[in-house]
């Protein structure tokens, strides 16, 4: 591939994910159930998760009958209760059984999983027993750790983590915020299954690419530094698995990332609802009350907030200074981010700066309408369904660059939390 500058073939703005600080959910059994559900969700999305969660079993009289450690992924159970007499005042925990689980976990940590889940950090761990070794091994190996902590062990938890430990409320949004947008791209890249089928057609333009799969068509902008190339690589071959094309979102090629995004938009099909009243509407810049095919203002009501998005500018790249030092984000009550932030892979960095209380909308023709993205702090997604693929393909081949050039061929859709 010939380039007019070295920047054209360089890696897109994608930062190595930051290792999350160890986190503990404040609470007992309910917190452990929440943690286990979260771990299974991550596993279903393709992340490598290892760990165990304690369950307390009770008899019909409500008294404790057994304690078991449950593998959060396989569901395998191991009793960790000692069989003591009813009058015993000793601790019923069988530390030998805990040690056998400990050995398996330490072996699993050698494979560098994405997350270690441990039932709790309590008095045994504070005393250097229990799963203390697993906590320490994960920390030394830069493996994120998620656990629970009872109120009386919070101080010991903070001492053990050297003050770096995070204390979380028993809330799913708080867990996703801790997990962090740094994992968003990997999560999205693995979101298509074999059911997405294979590539049927591919359309290549200087500023846009377009891909057809069994679920329909998908669009994606070519990052500006890739558009400077005089020759583009060949498009994905007809018959190539869509999920393999989507995996290119994590590759070093901006063209590969563009095709991947188009595959993801196509593979997630007609998610959400049509962006019509009462969900929102589009209007001409000169007459906001009059619907028009040549729009550059999009208004949508999300979480009771009116968010206005400059549609015509969505394909434009955000200035790198705003990406690397987004001083404008933390104080914003409502934020509209362009789909180009996803195409250029700067979205994780931007979301990392947004206040958790902000209403954040990702909008543009190249937004995959999948609930996976909503997990990472986005309030709504605004994307497009191509209703005239022939006209859209012709415009792309003719060099269409502005998103407004393609709006006549699409219907806008919105997926909200």
- Major beta sheet summary: 7 strands, mixed
Mean pLDDT: 80
* Mass-distribution shape: elongated
Share of helix among residues? 25-40%
Report the strand count. Answer: 18
Distance between the termini: 42 Å
Unreliable stretches, pLDDT < 50, 5 or more residues? Answer: 1-17, 277-324
Record the strand order, biggest sheet.
4-3-2-5-6-1-7
Note the total helix count.
15
Overview of this protein structure:
By secondary structure, the protein is α/β, with parallel strands linked by helices. The chain has helices spanning 29-44, 95-109, 123-126, 132-140, 154-160, 172-179, 184-189, 224-227, 242-246, 254-267, 320-324, 340-343, 347-351, 371-374, 389-397, and strands at 23-26, 49-58, 64-71, 77-79, 115-118, 145-149, 166-168, 201-204, 208-213, 216-221, 273-274, 280-283, 297-302, 305-309, 334-338, 359-363, 380-386, 410-416. Strands 4-3-2-5-6-1-7 form a seven-stranded mixed β-sheet, sandwiched between helices. A five-stranded mixed β-sheet has the order 11-18-17-16-15. β3 and β4 form a beta hairpin. α2 (95-109) runs parallel beside α4. The chain starts with 22 loop residues before the first strand and ends with a strand.
């Amino acid at each position: 591939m010939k380039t007019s500058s070295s920047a054209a073939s360089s890696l897109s703005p994608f930062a190595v994910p930051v290792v999350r600080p160890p986190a503990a959910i404040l609470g007992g059994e309910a917190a452990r159930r929440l943690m286990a559900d979260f771990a299974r969700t991550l596993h279903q999305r393709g992340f490598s998760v290892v760990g165990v969660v304690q369950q307390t079993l009770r008899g019909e009289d409500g008294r404790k009958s057994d304690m078991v450690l449950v593998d959060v992924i396989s569901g395998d159970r191991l009793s960790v209760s000692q069989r003591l007499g009813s009058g015993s005042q000793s601790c019923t925990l069988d530390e030998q059984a805990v040690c056998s689980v400990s050995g398996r976990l330490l072996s699993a940590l050698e494979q560098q999983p994405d997350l270690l889940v441990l039932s709790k950090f309590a008095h045994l761990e504070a005393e250097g027993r229990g799963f203390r070794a697993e906590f320490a091994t994960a920390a030394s190996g830069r493996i994120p750790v998620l656990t629970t902590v009872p109120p009386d062990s919070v101080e010991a938890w903070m001492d053990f983590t050297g003050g770096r430990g995070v204390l979380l409320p028993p809330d799913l949004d708080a867990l996703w915020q801790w997990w962090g947008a740094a994992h968003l791209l990997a999560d999205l890249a693995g979101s298509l299954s074999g059911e997405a089928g294979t590539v049927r057609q591919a359309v290549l333009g200087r500023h846009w690419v377009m891909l057809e799969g069994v679920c329909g068509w998908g669009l994606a902008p070519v990052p500006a530094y890739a558009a400077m190339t005089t020759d583009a690589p060949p498009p994905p071959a007809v018959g190539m698995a869509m999920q393999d094309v989507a995996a290119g979102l994590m590759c070093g090629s901006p063209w590969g990332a563009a095709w991947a995004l188009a595959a993801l938009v196509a593979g997630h099909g007609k998610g959400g609802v049509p962006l019509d009243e009462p969900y929102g509407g589009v209007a001409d810049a000169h007459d906001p009350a009059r619907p028009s095919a040549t729009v550059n203002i999009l208004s949508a009501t999300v979480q009771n907030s009116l968010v206005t998005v400059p549609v015509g500018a969505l394909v434009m790249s955000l200035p790198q200074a705003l990406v690397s030092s987004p001083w404008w984000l933390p104080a914003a009550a409502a934020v509209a981010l362009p789909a180009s932030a996803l195409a250029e892979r700067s979205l994780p960095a931007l979301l990392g700066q947004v206040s958790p209380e902000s209403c954040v909308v990702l909008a543009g023709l190249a937004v995959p309408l999948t609930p996976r993205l909503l997990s990472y702090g986005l309030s709504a997604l605004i994307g497009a369904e191509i209703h005239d693929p022939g006209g859209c393909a012709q415009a792309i081949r003719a060099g269409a660059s502005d998103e407004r050039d393609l709006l006549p061929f699409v219907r806008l859709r919105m997926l909200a939390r």
